[in-house]
């Protein structure tokens, strides 16, 4: 039997790689893990965690405004971007230390360098002038922002990575994209007082989400003062004499701005990893192709997380990592379950969603019932804020199972986590109906919508 330096070597210290490395090491296996940047990956270092902190920061102006309706007199407030970023950096450093400590305490060996495959069992530690071997290899190198290299002037633009480290808060920004990253940053910058324009080539923001949510959020964002240009793309970006940028758009207009941010999707981070040398098969986007158990076409090499381009969410990467450990080290082949994954968009108002959209349900089921409520949440009654909340249940008309649940409004992400349990458990509309409401709350609407708002028959609205 061949002898290897490690039972498992993990390439990538993000959420999936760290979880797999830590759990496997805790089993007494010899584990090595390499990360060329910082442990914690996209989520902790330059993704969901710092983004959520910026979301909180950007919500305070509305909180200050709303306080007046509740009897509070709030003096004129000021915001210091550098203080916020410094505090954010302290928190990120704390979290990274926890990730490192967890690996070390479990017995894993950490390498602060880039790792590349030489063959199916050999890894080159770049910068350390040596190679190591491993019985099994897990690639969890994540993804990176698409630089949109075909755009003239793309090198003048920032991505979400750089947005977390700007020296100063810009006066204006133009963001390309209509996905959750673009939408979230548009709301963040606007909330912090930045003149914000969102440019999207599609007909409506947030593709693949339920259309009711998309339209209602679009309308609300524009009411807040965010300019949204759909059916529009960038033609080129040019630097002005004053140091600002000119964004040339396909409609012939030119927007002068401090920054242009490209949020045009993310690419699997596979370039230069030596995957070809090891014989690992890649897909058209550069993603690592895996089977139902996260195994590549090379028997001892696995991949989890964004690098596989399945469901690019942190909890999914962690789930895939745990399934990998069961499959590879516990003799319990376990396939990740990607069905009914709840998710949130931390826009303002935020979105929480799980299951099928109305359009997707109409394609899958001949009879669909839609339960829909649009109302002003109680918290806005005294503040006077003209902002609506949307709740929607999508029900298979034959089995009466709730196959989709969608919320736009305060705390939507929190509600989506609990709705995820209900939809995952295949509960029926009757189960919702016989659940006692929590009053007064916005969430009570989910169990008090007794009659369908309308029905769909073979994809057509009939009532």
Would you mind describing this structure in some detail?
The structure is a single chain. With 463 residues, the protein is α/β, with parallel strands linked by helices. It is built from 13 helices and 23 strands. Strands 1, 2, 3, 4, 5, 6 and 16 form a seven-stranded mixed beta sheet that branches. A seven-stranded antiparallel beta sheet has the order 17-18-21-20-19-22-23, sandwiched between helices. Helix 1 packs parallel to helix 4, helix 1 (15-26) runs parallel beside helix 9 and helix 3 packs across helix 6. It is globular, with a radius of gyration of 24 Å. The termini are far apart. The mean pLDDT is 96.
Could you provide a short overview of the structure?
With 463 residues, the protein is an alpha/beta fold. It contains 13 helices and 23 strands.
Query: Gyration radius, to the nearest Å?
Result: 24 Å
Q: Structural class of the secondary structure composition? A: alpha/beta
Strand composition percent: 15-25%
Q: Name the helicity range.
A: 25-40%
What characterizes the major β-sheet? 7 strands, mixed
Number of helices: 13
Beta strands, count: 23
Distance between the termini: 69 Å
pLDDT averaged over residues: 96
Shape: globular
Stretches where pLDDT is under 50 for at least 5 consecutive residues are none
């Amino acid at each position: 039997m061949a002898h290897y330096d490690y039972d498992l070597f993990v390439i990538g210290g993000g959420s999936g790689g760290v979880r797999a490395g830590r759990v496997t090491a805790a089993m007494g296996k010899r584990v090595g893990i390499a990360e060329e940047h910082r442990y914690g990956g996209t989520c902790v270092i330059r993704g969901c965690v710092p983004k959520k902190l910026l979301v909180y920061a950007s919500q305070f102006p509305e909180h200050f405004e709303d306080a007046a309706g509740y009897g509070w007199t709030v003096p004129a407030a000021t915001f210091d971007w550098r203080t916020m970023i410094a505090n954010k950096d302290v928190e990120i450093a704390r979290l990274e230390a926890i990730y490192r400590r967890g690996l070390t305490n479990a017995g894993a060996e950490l390498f602060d360098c880039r790792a590349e495959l030489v063959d199916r069992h050999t890894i080159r530690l770049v910068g350390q002038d040596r190679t190591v071997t491993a019985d099994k290899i897990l690639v969890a190198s994540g993804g990176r922002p698409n630089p949109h290299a075909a755009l003239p002037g793309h090198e003048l633009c920032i991505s979400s990575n750089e947005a977390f480290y700007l020296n100063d808060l810009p006066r204006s920004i133009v963001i390309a994209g209509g996905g959750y990253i673009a939408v979230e940053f548009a709301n963040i910058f606007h909330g912090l007082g930045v003149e914000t324009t969102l440019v999207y080539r599609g007909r409506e923001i947030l593709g693949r989400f339920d259309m009711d949510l998309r339209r209602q959020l679009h309308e609300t964002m524009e009411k807040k003062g965010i300019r949204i240009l759909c059916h529009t793309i960038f033609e080129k970006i040019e630097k002005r004499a004053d140091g600002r940028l000119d964004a040339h758009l396909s409609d012939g207009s030119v927007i002068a701005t401090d920054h242009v941010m490209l949020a045009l999707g993310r690419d699997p981070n596979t370039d230069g990893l030596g995957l070809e040398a090891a014989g690992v098969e890649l897909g058209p986007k550069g993603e690592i192709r895996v089977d139902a158990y996260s195994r590549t076409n090379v028997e001892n090499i696995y991949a989890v997380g964004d690098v596989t381009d399945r469901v690019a969410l942190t909890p999914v990467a962690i789930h895939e990592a745990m399934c990998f450990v069961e499959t590879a080290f516990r003799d319990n082949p376990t396939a990740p379950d990607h069905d009914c994954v709840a998710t949130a968009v931390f826009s303002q108002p935020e979105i929480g969603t799980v299951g099928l959209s109305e359009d997707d349900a109409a394609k899958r089921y001949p009879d669909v019932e839609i339960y829909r409520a649009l109302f002003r949440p109680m918290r806005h009654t005294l503040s006077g804020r003209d902002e609506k909340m949307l709740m929607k249940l999508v029900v298979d008309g034959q089995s009466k199972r709730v196959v989709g649940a969608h919320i736009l409004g305060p705390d939507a992400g929190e509600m989506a986590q609990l709705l995820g349990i209900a939809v995952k458990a295949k509960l029926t509309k009757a189960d919702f109906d016989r659940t006692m409401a929590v009053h007064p709350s916005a969430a009570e609407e989910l169990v008090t919508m007794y009659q369908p708002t309308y029905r769909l028959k073979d994809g057509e609205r009939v009532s």
